[in-house]
Amino acid sequence: QLVSKLEQLGYVKREINPHNRREIIVDFAEKGHDFHKNTEEIQLHLIQKYYAKLPKEDLKTLLSLYEKIYQIAKETP
């Protein structure tokens, strides 16, 4: 349902794999590429503006916390 909605909104496109017709390839549509590019620019801006001002030890702590949150999310159904 989510892929269908994103397809309707123009963020993704679906194609049948020509080598295996049972597979469907989902890729960014133009609007999806634009959104992804914009998101990367925002993340870079945040890094330059805020993270770059943190001491190295704080960045290590932040990275450790992100990794712990990622593992919790990965293990949670």
> How helix-rich are the residues, as a percent range?
55-70%
| Structural class based on helices, strands and sheet pairing | alpha+beta
Indicate the proportion of strand residues: 5-15%
Q: Could you give the distance between the termini?
A: 19 Å
Total of helices? 3
Would you mind describing this structure in some detail?
This protein has one domain (2-75): Arc Repressor Mutant, subunit A (Orthogonal Bundle). The protein has three helices and two strands, in the order H-E-E-H-H. It has helices at residues 2-8, 30-49, 56-75, and strands spanning 12-16, 24-28. A two-stranded antiparallel sheet has the order 1-2. A hairpin with a 7-residue loop joins strand 1 (12-16) and strand 2. The longest helix is centred in the middle third of the chain and has 20 residues, at 30-49. The chain is elongated and about 50 Å long.
Provide tags for this entry.
77 residues; Arc Repressor Mutant, subunit A; two-stranded antiparallel sheet; 3 helices; 2 strands
Sum this structure up briefly.
The protein has 77 residues and is of the alpha+beta class. Helix content is 61%, strand content 13%.
Give the helix/strand layout.
Elements: H1 2-8, E1 12-16, E2 24-28, H2 30-49, H3 56-75
Antiparallel strand pairs: 1-2
